[in-house]
Amino acid sequence: MQLLNTLYVTTADTYLRLDNDTLRVEVEQETRLRVPLHHLSAVVCFGHTGLSAPLMHRLAEGGIALVLLDDNGRFKARLEGAVTGNVLLRQAQFGRVADPAFTLDMARACVAGKIKNTRQVLQRGAREAKSEDEAQVLTRLADDLAASLRALTEATSLDVLRGIEGEAARQYFIGLNLLVRPESRAVFQMDGRTRRPPRDRFNAMLSFLYSMWMNDCRSALEAAGLDPQVGFLHALRPGRAALALDLMEEFRPWADRLALTLINRGQLTADDFVLREGGGVLLEPDARKAVVVAYQERKRDEINHPLLAQSVPLGLVPLVQARLMARALRDDGAPYVPFVAK
Amino acid sequence: MDEPEKIPLSALQHWRYCPRQCGLIHLEQVFDDNVHTLRGQAVHAKVDQPGVETAKGVRVERALPLWHDELGLVGKSDVVEFLAGGVPYPVEYKHGSRNKAADIAACDDLQLAAQGMCLQAMTGKTVNEGALYYATSKRRRVVAITEQLRADVAQTADAIRQMLASGELPPPLVGEQATKRCKACSLLERCQPQATHAGLIAARSALFDPDA
Q: Which residue ranges does the record assign to the DUF83 domain (chain B) (predicted)?
């Protein structure tokens, strides 16, 4: 399994074209970059990017995903070939979503993965805390998350499960504020999760990082032959990639950690954000680029996958998990187990 | 009514190597390349072009379509040499060298025997022999198409047809076979043989334990 590059095009008014077997990036008719296509698994374009039809054909032929996002990283479209793969797998997926017991079981696993990984973020924060008081608060919040995790086994409905998840997320986001280094807290405080639009800088970063993880989870599910819209924890709704959201839950803490790293290393500062009239907060274009680069680097980190007992680049873990999901949907003896880092 | 599903000749070889590999390719319809499959493609690049040659009085057909209605097999031969009297002699190209482990060589033998049986059914001539050509060592290995091998072909075709009809993916190899075969398999990452049922069930029960 090889982690190939994703080319993110964030510069406005860029034009992409095919040049033999390379992708050529032009800005104002000047070549800025050439990338051999066999190094790419996906091309992700933000906002105003142009591209040639021959390039689109070649990407489709090579199985290289082409994804179009708006300026804020929200999904617009992807270039997709004919529906292929295993119709039996999709049929099983549709059958499972109609089975309440299976749906609850799958949703429970997704929430558990998220809570377990968020708890690790707080525990690590407690170990590294500078003040005894803060370490105590973080430890207490981590204990609350442990209680939420145990409570999941007793949840008898999706509503109860979602309630536990919401409460755990609230506690966790309180803790996240304490993981921001004291000098940056005035600039990067969050009062819970806000979106559409995000109302503070921390949330603006999280929204942007989540949308990139979301796209990767969606691609991973498609690569595994699953329908990303048919999910379990997240209700079916037209236009919503419910299964991609389910899969993403276990990865959210990875995005949160990366946001903290960028803040605490001073890679992003107050000036990297635009505060819009009325309270919405957006990332400046250059800051977006910095986040994309950091995300790409993070995906190369080798992570030990406990179930496969081998190390896998973080960027490929969504694919590994999508395959385990496919297996859980087809095979009664194989429950889904989210990725929990040791 | 649907006619019984035709089984590709290559599926026999896949099944003998690993039933799960056969299921992944022919049921799940997935295929991944690794260095072994790419080498295999390079070897086949020459023989995949349909054509006829005559050399030393032997007519050679490349990429010849093959079928066997009774067994429900379809496929293609790399090379068929037509000997004196029109007796067909199948030659299957493989990358690597002739000294393959006996159990791996047996997978190739099965595929070749199936080709011989197709040719026999198509031409009415008895086909008792064929050869495997190993591209790295440039050696041929002659394979006698015995009654035992013919019975194995029929039995394997039945097993594959049952698997396809059930829609169920066979379990991964275990033990010594897994040690020897999985590492060379291009589908290793899709197959995830390390994540056993027992391992998944254990990991699932530990999931709700905060300190596990």
A: 10-192
User: Is B190 in CB contact (< 8 Å) with chain A?
Assistant: yes
The domain that holds A55 is classified in CATH as: 3.100.10.20
Residue B73 pLDDT level (bands cut at 50, 70, 90): very high
Chain A residue numbers touching B200 (CB-CB < 8 A): 307, 324, 333-335, 337
CB–CB contact A307 B194 (8 Å): yes
Model confidence over A117-171: pLDDT tens digits?
999 999 999 999 889 999 999 999 999 999 999 999 999 999 999 999 999 999 9
pLDDT of B1 > 60? The answer is no
Q: Could you tell me where the beta strands, DSSP code E, fall in A20-107?
A: 22-27, 30-36, 40-46, 49-51, 65-69, 75-79
Measured between beta carbons, the chain A residues lying within 8 angstroms of B170 are none
The residue segments making up the domain with residue A128 are 87-330
Q: Percentage of chain B surpassing pLDDT 90?
A: 50
- Give the integer Cα–Cα distance in Å for B33 and B49: 21
Contact A308 B194 (CB under 8 A): yes
Q: Which residues of B touch A335 (CB under 8 A)?
A: 200-201, 204
User: What would the pLDDT profile of A309-335 be if each residue is shown by its tens digit?
Assistant: 888 889 889 989 999 999 999 888 889
Do A28 and A128 have their domain in common? no
How many domains, chain B? 1
B158 assigned to some structural domain: yes
User: Which of B27, B207, B209 should one mutate to test binding to chain A, selecting the residue with the greatest count of A CBs within 10 A?
Assistant: B207
Residue B198, chain A, CB below 8 Å: the answer is no
